[in-house]
Design a protein that fits this description.
By secondary structure, this protein is of the alpha/beta class. It has a single domain, classed as 4-Layer Sandwich (Metallo-beta-lactamase, Chain A), CATH 3.60.15.10. The protein contains three helices and eight strands, in the order H-E-E-E-E-E-H-E-H-E-E. The protein has a five-stranded mixed sheet with strand order 1-2-3-4-6, with no helix packed on it. Strands 5-8-7 form a three-stranded mixed sheet, covered by helices on one side. Helix 2 packs antiparallel against helix 3 (129-143). The longest helix is centred in the last third of the chain and has 15 residues, at 129-143. It is globular, with a radius of gyration of 16 Å. 22% of the residues are buried.
Length: 163
């Protein structure tokens, strides 16, 4: 595993600064770098991360990125959805994204008994119903033949899908 990031540092910085954001205190975009290390462990779909009093199941959810994962805490019904489910613009337009796999990953987590969604972006207070809404949005785009790069930005009630 090489550790090379598939998008240039300048593009990442531009994306970070594109919309206003509350960065952590002391954050300076000029000092920002992409981690280039080698992982100490590779997680696989179905792995269990044991945190002593809590367990998280690894759910491989490619689409936003090839190795994207969500984490599901069965005892609480929590889905830590990362870049898969959130209010805002879901990005599936980068060269490393796959809109078809993104849709399939949303459908995969849709099968879980979720009580709370905890996303990586924007608002933490989102309804569980957004999972079904995003799945429906992807299905609609698929039926229109729009699940291919360059199709555009599609707006739905609580989110957008950028392909």
């Amino acid at each position: 595993m090489s550790g090379n990031f598939p998008i240039s540092l300048n593009i990442v910085k531009d994306n970070l600064m594109y919309r206003p954001c509350d960065f952590p205190e002391g954050f300076n975009i000029n000092n920002y770098n992409i981690f280039q290390g080698v992982p100490s462990k590779i997680l696989n779909d179905g792995d269990i991360i044991d945190l002593s009093t809590r367990q998280l199941k690894v759910i491989h959810t490619p689409g936003h990125s090839p190795g994207h994962c969500c984490f599901y805490e069965r005892d609480r019904g929590y889905l830590y959805s990362g870049d898969l489910i959130y209010k805002g613009c879901l990005d599936a337009f980068y060269p490393t994204t796959n809109p078809q796999l993104f849709m399939e990953s949303v459908q995969k987590v849709q099968l879980l008994p979720i009580k709370k969604v905890l996303p990586a972006h924007h608002q933490l207070d989102i309804s569980v119903e957004i999972v079904d809404k995003i799945a429906d949005g992807f299905k609609e785009l698929s039926s229109m033949g729009k699940l291919k790069h360059g199709s555009g930005i599609f707006s739905f009630r609580d989110f957008q899908i950028h392909i």
